[in-house]
Amino acid sequence: MVRFASCALHPRPVLLAASVVLVLSACSKPVERVEIVRPVRTVTVAPTENRAVVTLSGEIQPRYESRLGFRVGGKLIGRQVDVGSVVKRGQLLMQLDPQDLQLAQSQAKAAVAAADSSLSLARAELDRYRELRQKNFVSQAMLDAKQAAYQSALAGHDQASAALKIQANQSGYNNLYADADGVITGIDVEVGQVLAAGSPVVRLARTGEKEVRVSIPEDQVETLRRVRDLTVRTWANPQVALEGSLRELSPLADPATRTYTAKITLPKAGSEVRLGMTATVQFSVPAPAAMSLPLSALVKHNDSSAVWVVEHGKVSLVPVQVAGISGNELLLASGLNPGQVVVTAGVNQLQAGQKVSLLGEELSKNSSVTPADRATAGAGK
After folding, report:
1. Which residues, in sequence order, are bridge partners of residue 255?
2. 284 against 68, higher pLDDT
3. Each residue of 95-135: pLDDT tens digit?
4. In the beta sheet, which residues pair with residue 14?
5. Cβ atoms 60, 161 nearer than 8 A
6. CA-derived radius of gyration, the chain
7. Among candidates 368, 343, 354, which has minimal Cα distance to 43?
8. CA 99, 101, 107, 113: dihedral to nearest 10 degrees?
9. Is 7 helix (H, G, I), strand (E, B) or coil?
10. Rounded to whole angstroms, how far apart are CA atoms 181 and 66?
11. What is d(CA 10, CA 15) in angstroms, rounded to the nearest whole number?
């Protein structure tokens, strides 16, 4: 009896546990799988005008630089300027020994005096022979001879007078003056040298107009020749951009560098732009219209370039061909069409076919809620 009683009481805990499991199983619901919608930033592809920038280095130089020299020869006895001296128009630069010029001027004055005497004598004889001819005391031939002698004396007097004027001018040529405001960039002689007439002795750069000289490679000459949008910056002050214009382009290439010299004028250059400074010239070259994207939109897929394109709330990977980079912009050669929406942020955490939400659209939806709606919603809570 005891054995049967123990056997009858033993299965009850097992049945109770099984019934609990069945009840819990009946009350629990199947777990639903939630699909993650990732917010992303996007841009809409549109063709934009593209401009390529070509930068060349050059040097600030004066537009006009004169090599001054004396009109007469002589010995240099004075020099009043040095390299770097700032001079004004009419300022004395150098002097020659005036002794020889003064002697030549005295000689010219004596020649004029002799010509005056010869002319006075010829005039007096001509007048006397005219009176004798009227009284028929001399022949016409003798009167003609005196007339010719007078004309010759008159010509000699004019010649001597002209020579005196020339010599008077040359006497003032022993002083060399600056013909314009500028700065002395070079001196080729020293005191004591004997100079020939016309030989260069000093170089004067006019500071009124300045320009930049750059060397253009032969494969870019035709492209840069038509550029009108030029920006010049000096290395000393790169924050200041100066306007420039192409004034001259050499028709011949340099035999050593095989480049073409271009001169860019700086009409608004101030005193802070000094001669000899290093400068950079930026040529803004218009290029065909192209599609551009931020660099953050590019992803690498199977050793090729691609971007994420949003269509119907999902993303798909589209291969693209990159044409180049301009600043922070990516220039595309092919792969996309205008109007497509491309992801620009969060590209490394996306998967093909994943649902996304556009941050721009979320902001616009939130911005459509008025303050009155927010107050009403708060009161309801």
Report:
1. none
2. 68
3. 999 998 889 889 999 999 999 999 999 999 999 999 998 98
4. none
5. no
6. 49
7. 343
8. -120
9. helix
10. 11
11. 10
Q: Which two tokens stand for residue 268?
A: 């608004």
Q: Are 201 and 69 in contact (CB under 8 A)?
A: yes
Number of H helices, E strands in the chain: 7, 22
| pLDDT of the residue at 260 | 94
- SS3 string of 298-331? CEEECCEEEEEEEECCEEEEEECEEEEEECCEEE
Residue 193 token pair = 């040298």
Residue 112 CA to residue 223 CA, distance in Å, equals 67
- In b/e form, how buried is each residue of 72-81, taking b as 16+ CB within 10 angstroms? bebebeebeb
331-362 burial: b if 16+ Cβ within 10 Å, else e: bbeebbeeebbbbbebbeebeeebebebeeee
pLDDT over 90 for what percent of the chain?
42
Burial readout 164-182 (b: 16 or more C-beta within 10 A, e: otherwise) = beebeebbebbebebeeeb
Q: Which of 295, 232, 236 is nearest to 264 (CA)?
A: 232
Q: Where is 332: in which H helix or E strand?
A: strand 329-334
Burial degree of 68 (CB within 10 A; 0-12, 13-18, 19+) = middle
Q: CB atoms < 10 A from the CB of 369, how many?
A: 10
